[in-house]
Design a protein that fits this description.
The two termini are 34 Å apart. This protein is α+β, with helices and mostly antiparallel strands and 202 residues long. The strands form two sheets. A three-stranded antiparallel sheet has the order 3-4-5. α1 crosses α2 and α2 runs parallel beside α3. It has two domains: 117 residues; 75 residues, no CATH class. It is 47% helix and 17% strand. It contains seven helices and five strands; from the N terminus they run αββαβββααααα. The longest helix has 20 residues.
Amino acid sequence: MENLAKALAKAQGEMGSAGRDRQNPHFKNRYATMESVVSAVRGPLSTHGIAWHQRVGVEGKVVSVETVLLCGADRLECGVLRAEARDPGPQGIGSVLTYLRRYSLMAACGIAPGDDDDGEAGERKPEPPPRASFDPEPTLAALRGKYPGVTLVDVEAFLENMKQPSLSALGEERRGKFVAAVLDNPEMAERFSVFLDNGGAR
């Protein structure tokens, strides 16, 4: 593993951020596509002799992705990411798969999307650290009464589009306010419905 660690350290020193190269047409924010992530890491990894591949699993509506890094005889399995699709059809599975593939690869290589949100990040309060004991199921159960099939990935992607902290970082009181808003506030409910109707997480 020593050879891989040294090669990866050198490669990371040459990697830039993944450019946010696509715009969400409904929320007008930009995000990094899989193509952008691959473009950011492929050259430095190849230069230092590191190959990568991703193992994909699908069981019903649960999609899993694991990025594996290889360098000579060294092999690093970077951990499995899992998420549940809204439906088991090709579009639902493909949407979650793409989402997991890009975040898995970014995590494995230690990079993040570039910050090109026109300074809006500087106006937001820093996110509090996630709570280790956070259980998303009560929140999802409340939402599914009005939005059947909604997943944690959908909710997290919606919050990201709204430039809000992740669900786990909101805290119990703010999670309750978020649920009340998407259930009872007409404007917020419409935004959430449009987001889900257009594929949710992507």
